[in-house]
C-alpha cells in the first residue's frame, strides 16, 4: 500500500510594488487604515512569484484580537478539529496557524490499484470537524478523497462535519446549454451531502445558483477583499483605472469590484465561445484607451478567455493590462498565454496550489488563509459572516 505524502509548507516571499507610478485617491471606508489587512512588501527572491506577506502588527483589530485569543486558548479548543486533504496542504497549515490550532492527524494512502484509504489518527467524537480540500486538478482524485474523509468523520461520530472547499470543481457544469448534457455540479453536491457533510464552505463558486444544489447550508466566501486590499495598498489614480469583465457573465462581479475601487469605470468584453476551452473575442463595450485595465474573473483555466480579452484591450489602446482571479487552475497552455507579455501582472490567490514549474515573473500569489480562518471561527461561533468580513460581492 503506497503512501501519499503531504508536502511540507513552502516559505512566502513578497511582492514588488504594483501601480507604483500612480497616486491612489483617498481610500474608501472599506480600505481605511483601521480595517484594512495591509501587506508587508519585500523584494521577490529567486524569480519566484510575488507573494505579499501579512504583517501581524497591521492586522485589523477584529482579526488581531481573535488571533491572540486563539493562541492563548488553543489548548481549550478541543471541540474543533481541522483536517487537511492532500490537495492543498500548505493552505491548510496557514489556516490552522491563523486560528491558533494544529492540524489534526490523518492518514491518507493509495492502494496499488489507486484506491484511497483514509484513517483519522485521533478522536473526533462530538467535535466540530472542518475538512480542507479543494477539488482542483486532479479533480476526480481530490473529490473522491474528500468524500472518503467525510465518510471517515461521520463513522467516527463527529458532531458536525464542514467541507471547506476553497475551489469547487465541476461548478461550471451548472446548467444545460444544449441537449443531453449532465448537470455535474448538482451531482457533486448530492455526493458531498450523501457522504455525510453537514455544511459546505466554498470560495467564489462559478455561479450563485450552484449553492441551491446543496440540501445543506452553504457559506459562500468571496475572496475579492483580499485582491482589493492588495490593489488598494498601491498608488493608483482612479482616472487612469478601468475594470474589465472578460465576458458578459462576469459583469456583476466586475461591477462590484469597480465600485470598491473608488467607483472606477467598467468595460465589458463581448465573447463568442465556439466550444469548451475555446474563446473568440468579438467586441469591447467601454473606453480603455490610455488607461490601466484590470481584468477580473473568478478563475483562470486555459487562459483563453482572459488572453483574448487582453489582446483586444491592447488593440484598442489600453496602456497596461492586469489580470485578477481567485482560482488559478492553469491548465495547459495557460502559462504560455499568461507569460507572453500581454499582462503587466497576473494576481491570483492560493485556493489552488501553483506548482513551482508554473511560476513566471508576472505572477503574484495572495493568501486567503486568514479570510478562511476567520470564516471558520465565525461559523463555529455561530456569528455573522456578512458583517466585517466583506464576504458578500454585493456589499
Distance between the termini: 50 Å
SSE order, one letter for each helix or strand:
EEEHEHEEEHEHEEHEHEEEHEHEEH
- The coarse silhouette is globular
Structural class: alpha/beta
Low-confidence stretches: 4-47, 53-62
Fraction in helix: 25-40%
Please give the radius of gyration in angstroms: 21 Å
- How much strand? 15-25%
Number of strands: 17
* Mean pLDDT across residues: 82
- Please report the number of helical segments: 9
In what order do the strands lie side by side in the largest sheet?
A: 13-12-11-14-15-16-17
The major pleated sheet works out as: 7 strands, mixed
Offer a concise description of the structure.
By secondary structure, the protein is of the alpha/beta class. The protein contains 9 helices and 17 strands.
Describe this structure in words.
The chain is α/β, with parallel strands linked by helices. The protein has nine helices and 17 strands. The strands form four sheets. Strands 13-12-11-14-15-16-17 form a seven-stranded mixed beta sheet, sandwiched between helices. It has a five-stranded parallel beta sheet with strand order 4-7-8-9-10, with helices on both faces. Helix 2 packs across helix 9 (369-380). The relative contact order is 0.14.
